[in-house]
Write a structure and sequence with these properties.
With 214 residues, the chain is of the alpha/beta class. It has helices at 10-20, 25-35, 46-59, 73-81, 95-108, 143-153, 179-192, and strands spanning 63-67, 87-92, 114-118, 131-136, 154-162, 197-202, 208-213. The longest helix is centred in the first third of the chain and has 14 residues, at 46-59. Bound molecules: calcium ion (CA).
Length: 214
């Protein structure tokens, strides 16, 4: 499960949520609706959404990017935090998933901030060096390509956040047929040595890598 932080006991995770989660009821409803979905594991954890909101606020981000939108929870979290003239370019390949997303974005009154693109991502996303923040949470075998594109698109001092970098623990011993985890292991090794960024990998949810562009 990536929709709660790994490595915590159930009771400690419950405590963490009890004393820190400030999830608006609309976001809770979206999360509960998504939980009915057969691929609900693709939903991010609520404490992760709140952490990303804090990052966006800390940076004073105006222009943000998301690769992999699903039912729109992470985009909603970011868009609620952006200023009224802020922008989120959200990329996904599924009309089905994002139909749910659009409904909640409209109800939250943030749809004017979100530019949803149903396309195989990252080719036509605007000008290099103009984004403040990027969140990558799509097909794992393409993560390296998304990361390289995001690194072009964010400004110096911009932040790239990559989801699922611990792969539910599978990174320590990836199965031979698990191409997704193998791709993440290779990317973790690459990020470790990447002189273009400042790096931190934190065990929030399923592991978030924070790559701050130098
Ligand atoms: Ca994810």
């Amino acid at each position: 499960m990536s929709n709660r932080s790994i490595g915590l006991s159930a009771s400690l995770h419950r405590y963490l949520l009890d004393v820190s989660l400030r999830e608006p009821s609309l976001m809770q409803r979206l999360r509960e609706e998504t939980a009915q979905h057969p691929e609900s594991d693709m939903q991010i954890a609520p404490e992760q959404g709140q952490f990303m909101q804090l990052l966006v606020r800390l940076m004073g981000a105006q222009k943000t990017l998301e690769v992999g939108t699903f039912t729109g929870y992470s985009a909603l979290a970011v868009a609620l935090t952006l200023p009224d003239d802020g922008q989120l370019v959200a990329c996904d390949v599924s009309e089905d998933y994002t139909r749910i997303a659009r409904r909640y974005w409209a109800e939250a009154g943030v749809d004017h901030k979100i530019d949803l693109r149903i396309a195989p991502a990252v080719e036509t996303l605007g000008h290099a060096g103009t984004f403040d923040f990027a969140f990558i949470d799509a097909d794992k075998t393409s993560y390296d390509a998304y990361y390289e594109r995001a690194l072009q698109l964010v400004r110096s001092g911009g932040l790239i956040v990559l989801d699922n970098m611990l792969r539910h623990g599978r990174v320590v011993d990836p199965a031979p047929d698990d191409a997704s985890t193998q791709a993440i292991v290779r990317l973790n090794d690459k990020l470790h040595d990447d002189e273009r960024i400042h790096l931190s990998l934190i065990p929030v949810a399923d592991g978030l890598s924070l790559a701050l562009k130098k």
